[in-house]
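Dear colleague,

Thank you for sharing your sequence with our group. We've completed the structure prediction you requested, and as agreed, I am returning the results in plain text so they can be pasted directly into your records. Please verify that the sequence below matches your submission; if there's any discrepancy, let me know and we will rerun it promptly.
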Amino acid sequence: MADEAGTGADDACAWHERLGWAFGLIADDPAARTAALAHLIEARRQVADALVRFNEMWRLTLPLGAEEQYQEPAFLEARRKYHRAQGRSLPDGLWGGPASGDLATWPGLPYALLFLEWEARYPQEWTQHAKAWGTKQSLVRGMALAPQEDAIRAKLTDLVELVVRRAYRCKDREYVRVARAVDGADLRGRLHRAVDSDSPWARCQAGYVLWLLDHPDMPNTPHVWRAWVAGRAAALR
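Please find the predicted structure tokens below.
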């Protein structure tokens, strides 16, 4: 089993051994979520402790020179333990992505989807315990580019619906890429229901996504978003 965080060389069993506990983060049972959060807190503590030890060893071996330093057994062991701790935590364990670049066949894909679903369903817990906006952005962009097998397509459709029905959060606009990738009758039906809902966030955000689906050449930029909102507001006057 590879120990380094983010490596794409591990198989599904290795990923499960490291991060299988994390599915508790999206469990319906509050007790299961509490247990998973406790596991995550401990995992992140171990990452922090390992980083401290790695930095200490880096400083101690720095006088050896770059080549000798990276051959020093104590330095290499500290680095190995740090990478091992990262691979058992979130978001660190997702960093790096698949070595082949093929997200669809990456054994880490279920955990990347889990991380995004956790942020969508339990945003406050995600923010408190594993906030990583850059990781969220890169994963969402990767999902939009991955081949859309039925199971992945269904999960991504669920995520788009979850996101448009809540108050906007950092990097949520990236989900437009996903919506365009999984565009179809199912997604559009859900977005139309969101537009007809009582939630002002859902009505606005779902309407914007639908408009962009109907205008595939329109860029999804802050300027376009503001212009669309302004036009919508003018239409309501």
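Summary note from our side: Residues 185 and 191 are 10 Å apart (CA to CA).

Kind regards,
the structure core
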